[in-house]
Design goal:
elongated; DNA binding; 5 strands; 2 domains; MLTR_LBD; 46% helix; Cro/C1-type_HTH; alpha+beta; 256 residues; 434 Repressor (Amino-terminal Domain); 12 helices; Beta-Lactamase; Helix-turn-helix transcriptional regulator; Lambda_DNA-bd_dom_sf
Length: 256
């Protein structure tokens, strides 16, 4: 059962660690009125809900939930990535993936489901258990599962800590129960005993054993800058770049 809109707003305010005074100043409303909204003594308008959720940086999916809880219709559409309305988005993502070759890149949704990938990703997933590659493929599960990439990750302990910390922050920021479940699952996987980062590392590297050697990557995440659609907001491109010249040369050689 959906909680009252005031309760949900209070939960989001507390999640963002803001006091009523701080939020009321940011939203340019009185603290008294905000208090009445949170306790159910005042019914917020749809404009008020949108103003508060904007200040609280609430994801679009949850903004629609708050509007419904307040008795209003959702205002943010949720298109299908394979539908005609998001064709331009889909084509742009595919162009980025292909343009990034010969280096790996994937498109994921909010729950880290792989929606698209370029050809070099196959180099990373070689040898993983078939059941982990059956759709829907979760890239975090694929990375840390004992039958996935984990046995090939030279710095598994370091990479695992990085992914779990990132997922924990995302779950806390969004309040998404599915992400909490994924975090619990991945935390239960073995952690590995990889070496500490090298002194010259400036980002957490992904070090993959390959053909008796090692491929080293760092990743960059890209999202849409001004989304107005729930699906588009939840898309991200995870691009892997070579962290040394040897990795770049090896990937170019494989492509050639």
């Amino acid at each position: 059962m959906t909680q009252p809109v005031g309760v949900l707003l209070r939960e989001w305010r507390e999640r963002r660690r803001l006091s009523q005074l701080e939020l009321s100043i940011q939203a340019e409303i009185s603290t008294r009125h905000l208090s009445f909204v949170e306790t159910g003594r005042a019914k917020p308008t749809s404009a008020m809900i949108l103003r508060l959720t904007e200040q609280l940086d609430v994801p679009l999916r949850e903004r629609n939930t708050l509007l419904l809880a307040g008795g209003y219709a959702p205002v943010y559409p949720q298109g299908r990535l394979d539908g005609p309305q998001l064709r331009a988005v889909r084509d742009s993502l595919r162009q980025v993936l292909v343009g990034h070759e010969p280096f790996p890149a994937v498109v994921v949704d909010r729950w880290w489901t792989m929606l698209d990938a370029n050809a070099p990703v196959g180099l990373l997933t070689a040898g993983v258990a078939a059941h982990l590659l059956e759709p829907p493929v979760n890239v975090l599960r694929l990375s840390l599962h004992p039958e996935g990439l984990a046995p090939r990750i030279a710095n598994l302990e370091q990479w695992r800590a990085h992914l779990l910390s990132r997922l924990e922050r995302q779950a806390r920021s969004t309040g998404d129960a599915k992400l909490d479940e994924l975090l619990a699952e991945l935390t239960a996987y073995p952690g590995g005993t990889g070496p500490a980062p090298a002194e010259h590392d400036v980002v957490v590297p992904l070090r993959i054993r390959h053909d008796g050697g090692e491929l080293r990557f760092f990743s960059i995440t890209a999202v849409f800058g001004s989304p107005l659609d729930v699906t588009v907001e939840e898309l991200a491109i995870e691009s892997f770049f070579p962290a040394d010249a040897a990795t770049a040369e090896a990937l170019r050689a494989v492509t050639a």
